[in-house]
């Protein structure tokens, strides 16, 4: 078994991983930048090491410093969380070369699913349906414009090596493809160090549905049902729920089978997520990407399955077997709201600063994953995610009303947050009916 884990991340996910480690009797090591000296994950770790100044590239993205911190503190494993180095095949290989367990898939699997062009081709050969688009990387704006005409407008430009909405552009007119390509490529290069792009046929009025999978090194690969991530703004997820409202059980079974096939096609081991677009009108679904890490929204799956995904990750990384196999039963309904330090009334303008009052909600079926506390100076250097509020109920309506209650109880003063947006969403007729598609927030919701 792993004895000591260095958590190569910050914020709420670092705190979440450390809690799982403590439950398993595993010691923890935190790494932090100078901007995170007062962060909760630093306080909760058994040992903490400062690895550099605030910019991510000089701290959390500095592979040598992270591995050196692991070796210097006697950590035998590194859990990357999500973001930063979580899907970096070079980092996973460096860990292996230094004799440190990387809590995640192999470098081969990370590369196979991390390059979105390779991933599309690989899963298509495994029989998984993919959205029509380019088979090779695009590096030239003129080539992009020509390909867009052959695919048919509108199209979606996507970074081949990224995620999280960065390096993505929807283009409605062929005349705008070249400029959109340059903008997206520059953004992808800055975010991921890779400006390579590919193109897909753009599907409007669809649902974003993803399947959580777990696989061990003993041949077991299981799907833990789906999450609906359709409530999003500019490709950034805002609300997730499990299961997806109105999804036919037969379609769910097909999606789960496709996700397992996708994972097996790259010899995947660990926790991962296979993402699909689902058209309720035609009942078709299409693979869009696979994330080789734990997701921000993993708690909703944990709430409806009773499975601790981080514990399973650590067990698998230790060479053990999954605690589950076969079909996983879903119990009730869960909803997660991402509470960001942003002002929704000002076009979601970031709102870092001092939290002068902090009172999280509680009660039956309520979970809060956060690194915030009263007196915490929320830094401007990183992602704006402040907390994840997750609720569980016997059905979707109980979960929705429970979320309304929890949001009304949540007190965060000193900075602006997205709580007002979530309150408005919970009471919106379309959300209540479960009719949300990926285009809904951008077109209809205001605070």
Structure described in brief:
This protein has 447 residues and is α+β, with helices and mostly antiparallel strands. It has helices at residues 11-23, 40-44, 63-73, 89-97, 107-114, 116-125, 141-151, 177-192, 249-265, 298-305, 309-317, 396-409, 419-426, 429-433, 440-444, and strands spanning 4-7, 27-33, 47-52, 77-79, 101-102, 155-159, 169-171, 197-201, 207-215, 221-233, 236-242, 270-279, 284-291, 333-340, 342-343, 349-350, 353-354, 357-359, 366-370, 377-378, 385-393, 411-413.
Record keyword descriptors for this entry:
Dna Ligase, domain 1; 22 strands; 26% strand; 8-stranded antiparallel sheet; 447 residues; globular; 5-stranded parallel sheet; alpha+beta; 3 domains; Rossmann fold; D-amino Acid Aminotransferase, Chain A, domain 1
Total of domains: 3
Number of strands: 22
CATH class of the largest domain: Alpha Beta
Query: What's the CATH topology label of the largest domain?
Result: D-amino Acid Aminotransferase, Chain A, domain 1
Overall 3D shape: globular
Ranges where pLDDT stays below 50 over 5 or more residues in a row are none
Indicate the radius of gyration in whole angstroms.
21 Å
**What's the architecture of the largest domain in CATH terms?**
2-Layer Sandwich
List the helices and strands and how they pair.
Elements: E1 4-7, H1 11-23, E2 27-33, H2 40-44, E3 47-52, H3 63-73, E4 77-79, H4 89-97, E5 101-102, H5 107-114, H6 116-125, H7 141-151, E6 155-159, E7 169-171, H8 177-192, E8 197-201, E9 207-215, E10 221-233, E11 236-242, H9 249-265, E12 270-279, E13 284-291, H10 298-305, H11 309-317, E14 333-340, E15 342-343, E16 349-350, E17 353-354, E18 357-359, E19 366-370, E20 377-378, E21 385-393, H12 396-409, E22 411-413, H13 419-426, H14 429-433, H15 440-444
């Amino acid at each position: 078994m792993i004895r000591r884990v260095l958590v190569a991340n910050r914020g709420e996910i670092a705190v979440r991983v450390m809690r799982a480690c403590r439950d398993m009797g595993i010691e923890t090591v935190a790494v932090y930048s100078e901007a995170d000296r007062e962060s909760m994950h630093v306080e909760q770790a058994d040992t903490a090491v400062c690895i550099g100044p605030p910019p991510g590239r000089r701290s959390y993205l500095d592979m040598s410093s992270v591995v050196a911190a692991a070796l210097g503190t006697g950590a035998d494993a590194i859990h990357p969380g999500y973001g930063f180095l979580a899907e970096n095949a070079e980092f996973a290989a460096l860990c292996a070369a230094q004799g440190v367990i990387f809590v995640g898939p192999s470098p081969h699997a990370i590369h196979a699913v991390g390059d979105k062009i390779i991933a599309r081709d690989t899963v298509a050969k495994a029989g998984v349906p993919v959205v029509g688009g380019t088979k090779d990387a695009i590096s030239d704006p003129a080539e992009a414009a020509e390909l867009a005409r052959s695919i048919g407008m509108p199209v979606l430009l996507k970074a081949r090596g990224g995620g999280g909405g960065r390096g993505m552009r929807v283009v409605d007119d062929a005349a705008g493809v070249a400029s959109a390509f340059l903008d997206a490529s520059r953004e992808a290069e800055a975010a991921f160090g890779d400006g390579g792009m590919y193109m897909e046929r753009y599907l409007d009025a669809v649902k974003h549905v993803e399947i959580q999978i777990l696989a061990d090194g003993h041949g077991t690969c299981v799907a833990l049902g789906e999450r609906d991530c359709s409530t999003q703004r500019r490709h950034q997820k805002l609300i997730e729920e499990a299961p997806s409202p109105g999804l036919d059980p037969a379609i769910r079974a097909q999606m789960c089978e496709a996700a397992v096939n996708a994972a097996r096609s790259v010899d995947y081991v660990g926790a991962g997520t296979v993402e699909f677009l689902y058209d309720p009108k035609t009942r078709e679904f299409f693979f869009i990407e696979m994330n080789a890490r734990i997701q921000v929204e993993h708690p909703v799956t944990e709430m409806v399955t009773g499975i601790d995904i981080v514990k399973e990750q650590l067990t698998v990384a230790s060479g053990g077997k999954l605690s589950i196999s076969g079909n996983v039963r879903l119990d009730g309904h869960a909803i997660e709201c991402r509470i960001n330090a942003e002002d929704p009334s000002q076009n979601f303008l970031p709102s870092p600063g001092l939290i002068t009052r902090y009172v999280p909600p509680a009660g039956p079926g309520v979970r809060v994953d956060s690194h915030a506390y009263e007196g915490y100076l929320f830094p401007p250097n990183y992602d704006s995610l402040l907390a994840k509020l997750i609720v569980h109920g016997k059905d979707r309506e109980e979960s929705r009303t429970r979320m309304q209650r929890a949001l009304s109880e949540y007190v965060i003063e000193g900075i602006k947050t997205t709580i007002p947006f979530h309150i408005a969403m919970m009471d919106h007729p379309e959300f209540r009916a479960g009719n949300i598609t990926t285009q809904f927030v951008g077109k209809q919701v205001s605070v």
